[in-house]
Amino acid sequence: MSDLGSIAWPPAPIETARLVLRGSAAQDRAAFVELLASPEVHTYLGGPRPRDRIERELPVVPERWPGSFVVDLDGAMIGQILLRRAPEHLRPAAAGSVDLGYLFLPRAWGHGYAAEACAAALDWLDDVLPGEPVVLTTQTANSGSMRLAAKLGFTEVERFRAWDAEQWLGLRPPATPLPA
Ligand SMILES: CC(C)(COP(=O)(O)OP(=O)(O)OC[C@H]1O[C@@H](n2cnc3c(N)ncnc32)[C@H](O)[C@@H]1OP(=O)(O)O)[C@@H](O)C(=O)NCCC(=O)NCCS
Question: Is the CB of 114 within 6 Å of ligand 1?
Answer without folding.
Answer: yes
